[in-house]
Fold these 3 entries.
Entry 1:
Amino acid sequence: MFAFAPFGFASAIVANLLSNAVRPSRDPARPPQTARANTAPVDPSPMASLPMLPRIARVRVEAARDRVVVVEEIDLPKGDWHTGGLELFAAFGAPGTPIAIDARLVSTSGPSGDPRKDDVGDPIALDPAVRRAKGATALLGRPQMAGVVLHLRESALRRAFESGRAAVRLRTLLHPPAENADGSRDLVVRLGMVSGQPLTLGRIQVVSLERDLRVTHASATLCGPEADPFPLSVTVLPRAESSEGVWPPSIPPEMAVRHPTDDLCVRFWVTS
């Protein structure tokens, strides 16, 4: 389990960002680094292109009674990368500003392309930003949204590429979403695009972090002004009871038609 970097914002810029959001609380665990307020001017110029085509390999929602952790793993094949660090922007999802964020650069290898479970990776320095900052390339969400800038060091990228492909593992700690009338809870996860093209979306998982808390059902759709709302396949862990005849058919996320403005809406039900 990684230590999250809590947001102890002090600058006027970040205070304005949080004025209509949940007040951040300090995580008791010692963070690997402290997030720094980003006071760099917003870059009005076109975003720099990346030397590779990333892919969102997995979105994982981890539910507990007092928190939800959203994990996004973004594959970074080496592509045309030879040298230099990368500055990437990731927008916040919903329902609110995160309590804390942890970002790691890990290596992926093998046919599945999954990072090794024992690979804690290299910590990625984060800067909160009211929108995409100068020099950063938008990776998750839209440039005008609030989020964080990820600073990927050249040395960490080189180590990751020596073992295969690199992947950014972004873990976001949230307060549990409010319960709907039917007992469900909703999350919005930001998806990615590079040079205006949406990134491929891989697996979607919803899991319980507590033994006596069970995820009974989960569903996911793309959401946005142009989104195709056809249900996407979701894996529930531990395996949920069969819901055959209850839920409509679904398609694998990588087969869904994506638009640059699409987000991922996840709905899940839990019971003790």
Entry 2:
Amino acid sequence: MFDLLNFRPHNLLHCVHAQYKFENDWEISVVAGPPNCGLYGNLNDGTYEVAIIRPNGNMTDDVNGWNTKQEVSAMMWVLAQL
């Protein structure tokens, strides 16, 4: 499911961001950047920081960092099932 994400430049230099809204109105926000950019994802290592947004627009607890593409895909699959 990772392939559904359309990464664009983030407002932080050399970082990327993708957001995907599922049919059930849950959303996933995925970001990454170079080492020491302040995000919990490193493009060089292929890891990503993930935020989950509820249908009411509120983010769940906190971001989840250092996820692989496979882990992001698994989260996306679960969100699609809700």
Entry 3:
Amino acid sequence: MKKIIVLSKILLMIFISLSSVSLAFAKEDEEREILYWVAPMDANFRRDGPGKSPMGMDLVPVYADEQQGSSSEVVISPEVIQNLGVRTAEAERSKLWRKISTVGFVDYDESKMSHIHLRTQGWIEQLKMRSEGERVKKGEFLFSLYSPELVNAQEEFLQALKLGNTSLVNASKDRLVALGMSQPEVKRLKENRNLRKNIAYYAPQDGVVSNLMVREGMFVKPENQIATLADLSTVWVMAEVFERQSSWVKEGLPAEVEFSYLPGQKFKGMVEYIYPDLDPLTRALTVRLKFDNFDEALKPNMYGNVSIYAGVKNNIIVIPREAVIRTGSEERVILAKGNGRFEPRQIIAGIESGDWFEVKSGLNEGEVVVVSGQFLIDSEASTKASFMRMSRLEESNMKNTNMTITDDNMPIIGMGTITEIFKDDNTLKIDHQPIEILDWPRMEMKFSVDKENSNLDFNLLNVGDHIEFNMMKINGEYVIVDVSVIEDMQGN
């Protein structure tokens, strides 16, 4: 029995608390001044009191305190803020690195490449290089060449040695070197006096065969390329920088590159060269980066994410990058003013670095911006500002005329076909489609045209034109204020 009494007391206290809260909210709503009632789905449909919208929905009140502030300020209830998942961040004074994030591809270091050409014509024999990608060491035998011109030059050199004519010997020796015979080969020929039909060629450097243009037995000339050797101990990364960031880049700046096939591993290098012109199609500046590649983990033609660090910018106001709304013509943020009030604010953004934006003007340190859900709020604010501008224009037009518009006479749109035109008394007979907001069925009616407050030219209208017309109830009569001719109308 005691438990029942205690439980009853608790329930009574809860009931009293809830009743107090409800009365407080009711009192608060009663104290707020209601300007008008509006349809939830149509801000143009307004009434002085509660009722139903043309779609059968309950009208909602618009309070005076919701209209305070700028024309684009919106007020959102805490429940809606929570449902939208609105998150905010404070504009703070900090520093940002001028970080350039782009992509690039690995290329050979052209300063460590050798192209093998001949200085005479002949036939390739004993070709050791069989395919591209093979590794060679400096001084390693590559191929031999049978060249009748080199054979004749050797014979001339040996004949000069027999004659003992120093000038002739030197001239013959120079000719052999000019035709591509190495100094060791010339020295060996001088010592053993044995003519060699096939002249050996050796690798000028360490590397891989990146290009092999011949096969054994081929006849080649000096203009033919034999092969290309590339040293992969260092590589280039060719990256493109946006035009707006091109002034940040300087030779010697530190750079990093990451590759998807090596997650978590960063390669550190530097900006070696900046090309002098921009790509006319992409409007981007090509930058050459140099990276050490001793383990040859970086392969030519691999794509990676490049970061170039162009120095730090101190003592600036920064906000999260996701807070900025870009429209193409301007940049803005949604300012959180507290108590559910939000307002769009145009800003001038500076550099972008990672997840942060510099704000040059438009925001002060400590102001709070929306970083999640801001697009919905921005859309609502833009719509509200448009409606308020329309309302001010409408009020201004009414002040400049002596016509009386009743409270429930908002602009009504109809569609139909012109059946008769009466220019003398400024009237049109229209076979119009049903107008649901007025509960009018399809019928043929005669409408007056408000000549004083519309720019309608009767000479541009013809019987049979399909039209869309706007009308308002002025002094108890529906009067046409605007007409637009349309190409086609369904249901006619």
